[in-house]
Structure formats: structure tokens, C-alpha cells
Design a protein that fits this description.
CATH superfamily of the largest domain: Oxidoreductase, molybdopterin-binding domain
Largest sheet: 5 strands, mixed
Number of domains: 2
Number of strands: 23
CATH architecture of the largest domain: Alpha-Beta Complex
Number of helices: 6
CATH class of the largest domain: Alpha Beta
Helix content: 10-25%
Shape: globular
Order of helices and strands: HEEHEEHEEHEEHEEEEHEEEEEEEEEEE
Distance between the termini: 81 Å
Structural class: alpha+beta
Strand order of the largest sheet: 4-3-12-7-8
Length: 394
């Protein structure tokens, strides 16, 4: 047998083993998926990809302040790690790099740090990708790859302080235990600037809405970077590395980057003109009535949610004439720095027929939700006006 044939056979057997291993992991995580992925008729999740499981929340569920765990959107590139890798008895968090004292922490060790709870929106960078024109590749998220939850854990800065950060440190690399089925696929490795890592509101979360972090949401530990997109909120966290540079690799140097300035679709772009996705942009959604609903003469309560990155929402406006005129909605409920604001508008339809309702938000930094979001080749950061069409019956 020739060397080339032998090498090809070894490669084939290796890939078969990797695929079989991936199927084994799939069988182990199916019970978690069964709890999360209810049938489409229940309206609790909209499945976009089955393996790995990627699903969004129907927007009509966003009439509550906190998104329940079982309805919270799910996104990963490879699916959860094998359960034995993240079982509490086996799991460890390793902290290394430009520090004075390398750490290996159990979950019990982590819980000895000060416990903090932060309510924060977590949103996939690609939420709304399906609305970009021309269309771009990737999971075709519409409106529901976002949620608002109470996250409990410890401050990342407290862990880093225990390790002792060296003066040359500028970035913190984050690595989870999830792995691609095929070893040639790059790991999902991300990093955040040191100033974000040591911000007092950046936490390592082990609870979600008062319960242990679910498997599909990163158990036993995930990062929460309030105000930033979810690509920085590494799930199944096992390694923290303090370093001088951004993380290397595909998911930091190529993926999850956006143009510095607006570009024309498909115009081509040098890599130096791209920057990592970080803070969220101002955005609002109409949760009720839903698209296609029939409503009476009224009054009809139009309601939804609005959020921004590191600035609070200052206003939400509603239009019934395609944006020619706008009326102020009322901000209601809780007002927390990184959470979404609920809003309501009491509408009395003037006549029967089809009506399209638009909404837009403004934040305290003066950002206004635009009619259309700037196009980018990955479809990130969509925040165009939200709209639903209803039929008024009188």
C-alpha cells in the first residue's frame, strides 16, 4: 500500500471517529434539547438549526420583563460539550497568562467570591440577519435571538485580582469546553479588552433567573458582558488567559467583525477596515399585537421592549403611517442599566383595514434606531425599525 493511500485511510478513519464522537455527544444532550425545544405549535421556540441546536424566541413572548430560561434563545457553533466534561466533579476553571498566580478553580471555589446579580440583555450578533438586503449567509435569525435575564455569579475582575494582573496585560482571552466535531475546524475562541474584563458589571455567571445555569446556556459557567453582544459571553467557560493581544484565530480575527464605516453591498473590504463586534446598538421590538393579528376598534395596547448597549433607553415612538409621523410610547416597568425597557402605547384605530405599526427607540447617548440597518457582509447588528402588520375589524 502506498504512503499516500495509507495517509488517506488514516484521515478517513480519523474523520469517521470524530463524526461518531459528535453523534455520541448529540445523544447525550438530547434530553436538554427536549426540555428546551418544544413543538412549534406551542410558540415557545423557533428552531433555525437543529444540529447544533439554534433557536429563537417568538417575539410575542417578550411581554414579560424577564425571559424564562426555557424560552430564551439558544446559539452555539458546535453544541454543548459532552456532559462529563462539564460535570461539577470534573469541571475546573483555569486562569493563566500574564498573571502572578495561575489559578485552578472549582465551582465551589468560585462561589467563595462575592455573589452579584445583574439583569442584562443577551443578544446574538446576527439577530435580524434575515432582514438585510441583499441577503447574507449565516443562520437566518429574525427578531427573537435576544432575551433579558437575571444573571448571578462573581465579578471577573475579582478572579483576575486574585490571580494578579501584570502591567503588560491588555486583553483577556475566553475559551469554552465546546469543541467542533471535526478537529480541523477552529475553536470558538474570543477575547475582550482588559477594561471590559475588569468592569464591575462583567461577571462569570453560574445562575440564570435564580436557577443553576442550564446546559444549553453555558453550564456550569459563562461570561456575561453587559451591553455587549453575545459573542463575548462565552459559554461552558474553562479557560481565561490574560495577554497583550487580541485572541488569534478565525472567530476573533475574521468572524464577528464589522466595517468601521458603511460600505456598499458586496463591494469587497480589506481586513484592516474591520473591527470586532462589541457593544449593542439601540433597538426596539413590538411584542403585541403580533404580525397577522386581528384587532378591534380598541383601545388596543401596543407593547414591546427596547434596549441599547451601554446607554439607557430614553424614548420609544410609534408610527401608523409608514414613519411620516411618530407618537410617544410610555416607558413602563423596571429601569436597570443593561436590561431592556418595556413600553406601551394605547391605540384607537380610526378605521377598518390593514395597518402596519412601526416602532423606533432612542437612547441616552442620542442614538436613534434607523429605518434600515447599515449592510455588512455578515449581517450583524441589525436594528432597523420594527414593524408588524395587523387587520383592524370594526
Amino acid at each position: 500500500m502506498s504512503e499516500s493511500v495509507s495517509s488517506s485511510r488514516r484521515t478517513l478513519f480519523k474523520r469517521m471517529a470524530e463524526i461518531i464522537g459528535g453523534l455520541a455527544v448529540w445523544r447525550q444532550v438530547r434530553p436538554a434539547l427536549a426540555q428546551q425545544a418544544v413543538s412549534p405549535e406551542t410558540g415557545q421556540q423557533i428552531v433555525r438549526v437543529m444540529r447544533p441546536y439554534d433557536a429563537e424566541t417568538p417575539v410575542r413572548e417578550f411581554t414579560s420583563y424577564v425571559t424564562p430560561n426555557h424560552r430564551f434563545f439558544v446559539r452555539s457553533h458546535f453544541g454543548p460539550p459532552a456532559p462529563e466534561l462539564i460535570a461539577e466533579a470534573n469541571w475546573r476553571l483555569h486562569v493563566g497568562g500574564l498573571i502572578e498566580h495561575p489559578l485552578e478553580l472549582t465551582l465551589t471555589d468560585l462561589k467563595e467570591f462575592e455573589r452579584v446579580t445583574i439583569t442584562a440583555v443577551v443578544q446574538c450578533s446576527g439577530n435580524g440577519r434575515a432582514f438585510h438586503r441583499p441577503k447574507v449567509p449565516g443562520v437566518q435569525w429574525e427578531r427573537g435571538a435576544v432575551g433579558n435575564a437575571q444573571w448571578t455569579g462573581v465579578r471577573l475582575r475579582d478572579v483576575l485580582a486574585k490571580a494578579g494582573i501584570r502591567p503588560s496585560a491588555k486583553h483577556v482571552q475566553l475559551q469554552g469546553a465546546d469543541r467542533p466535531v471535526v478537529s480541523s475546524v477552529p475553536l470558538f475562541t474570543r477575547s475582550i479588552p482588559l477594561e471590559k474584563a475588569v468592569h464591575p458589571d462583567t461577571i462569570l455567571a453560574y445562575e440564570m433567573n435564580g436557577r443553576p445555569l442550564p446546559l444549553l446556556h453555558g453550564a456550569p459557567l459563562r461570561v456575561i458582558t453587559p451591553g455587549w453582544m453575545a459573542d463575548s459571553c462565552t459559554k461552558w467557560l474553562t479557560e481565561i488567559t490574560v495577554q497583550t493581544d487580541e485572541a488569534k484565530g478565525y472567530y476573533m480575527q475574521t468572524a464577528y467583525r464589522v466595517p468601521v464605516t458603511a460600505i456598499q453591498p458586496n463591494s469587497g473590504l480589506p481586513g484592516t477596515s474591520m473591527v470586532p463586534v462589541e457593544a449593542m446598538v439601540v433597538k426596539s421590538l413590538i411584542a403585541s399585537p403580533a404580525n397577522g393579528d386581528q384587532v378591534g376598534r380598541g383601545p388596543v395596547t401596543v407593547q414591546g421592549v427596547a434596549w441599547s448597549g451601554e446607554a439607557s433607553v430614553s424614548a420609544v415612538e410609534i408610527s401608523f403611517d409608514d414613519g411620516k409621523t411618530w407618537e410617544q410610547a410610555r416607558l413602563v416597568g423596571e429601569d436597570e442599566p443593561y436590561a431592556w425597557r418595556q413600553w406601551q402605547f394605547l391605540w384607537k384605530p380610526a378605521a377598518a383595514g390593514a395597518v402596519t405599526i412601526l416602532c423606533r427607540a432612542t437612547d441616552a447617548a442620542g442614538q436613534v434606531q434607523p429605518q434600515e440597518s447599515p449592510w455588512n457582509p455578515s449581517g450583524f447588528l441589525w436594528n432597523g425599525w420594527d414593524r408588524v402588520s395587523v387587520m383592524v375589524q370594526i
